[in-house]
Design brief:
The complex is a heterodimer of chains A (about 140) and B (about 80).
Chain A (H helix, E strand, L loop, with lengths): L1 H12 L3 E7 H5 L11 E7 L9 H9 L4 E2 L2 E4 L2 E7 L3 H8 L2 E5 L2 E5 L2 H11 L2 H12 L3
Parallel strand pairs in A: 2-5
Antiparallel strand pairs in A: 1-2, 3-4, 4-5, 6-7
Chain B lengths: L5 H18 L3 H20 L18 H11 L1
Classes of the chains: A alpha+beta (about 140), B mainly alpha (about 80).
Chain lengths: ~140, ~80
Amino acid sequence: MKATLAVLNELERQGIFQRYAIGGAMGAMFYVEPVVTYDMDIFVVLSTRSGLLTLTPIYDALRQRGYEPQGECIVIEGVPVQFLPAYNPLVEEALALARLVDVEGVPTRALPLEHLIAMAVQTGRLKDRARVQLRCARGL
Amino acid sequence: MTELPPIVQAALAAKQRRRRALAALPYADKLRILLALQQMADAIGQTRGAPPRAWPLNATTLLPRRMEEESGVSRG
């Protein structure tokens, strides 16, 4: 995990994407108790000059480093990572306001809790709605 | 609505306290719990032939086991 975050930090430094933050269940874990998940959702502001949102530059950069796609993810240092571009104003704001956090010496960012909840409501799947209910019920 | 029996209220309150205590842990400790949960889920899944999905990370260092082995070789 720390090695995965170090690779993401390196990609950001190299301008492969402008900014990233952890979302989904792994992002929520910064605020709530651990839950079982098998991938890490990484939201990114892409470094694009055209209006087209494409993850190809990220995948190309990772392939050059020897990491291979697996389904909708790409496995970075043992952790399947799913990249999601900022696809609407809510996600753009979440990325802009992402919190700087530290995982045993490795700096990274987490989406704010309020935005994680709003994004879960917006996504609207049954499991997302259940997560929102749980977080609200726990006063978080 | 019928009030819950005191013993149930106490159990629910204890669960709530535990969740809050877990939520307050450092993120790295939560990751270690996640790795343990993944391995437990794998053990159950393997009884019905599901492939393992737990991340191959060292629960102490949170680094890939492969990386640990390589650094061990270079040291040794």
